[in-house]
Amino acid sequence: SSGINAEYGYYITNNLSIMSSVKERLKAELSEAGSSSSSSGAGNSKDPPASEPESEEKAKLQILVSALGEEQLDRYEAFRRSKFPQSMMRKMVHSMTGVMPSSNCCIALSGIAKVLVGQIVEESLEVQDSLKESGPIHPKHVRDAVRRLRNKGQLGISNHRKNKLKRL
Q: Closest Cα to residue 30, out of 51, 53, 60, 50?
């Protein structure tokens, strides 16, 4: 467990040290996406021209990101850069199933895990607000959030299995 925590600590530290340049790259990518979507399609036979809804989505995203404050943009960048390492997902799946998963399977599981963590964190913040507390979320908030999501049926995890052995 401490090895996993140390590895995540490395990834978090590594991500935070890179954050300063990410903002400029994100703005550049969004501006390129906005400009290339309006001029794409004529001479490029490899990439099909972007459909109108896709270009509208990119434009809306660009407007939203340009309206973000400094702190919000930092959080958005951290969200975009966060991921579960494929090597860890591969080890976990292999230890549970005995089968070595493909890289596509690891990518899909990483995405699902990221969504699941996002749901739990979002519900944890709601729990914290309902308790009228502020600051970082604590394990009690996370436990209550998981319980709430499980009761709502939104977690995708079945209820705990109860021990069916009766006392003699």
A: 60
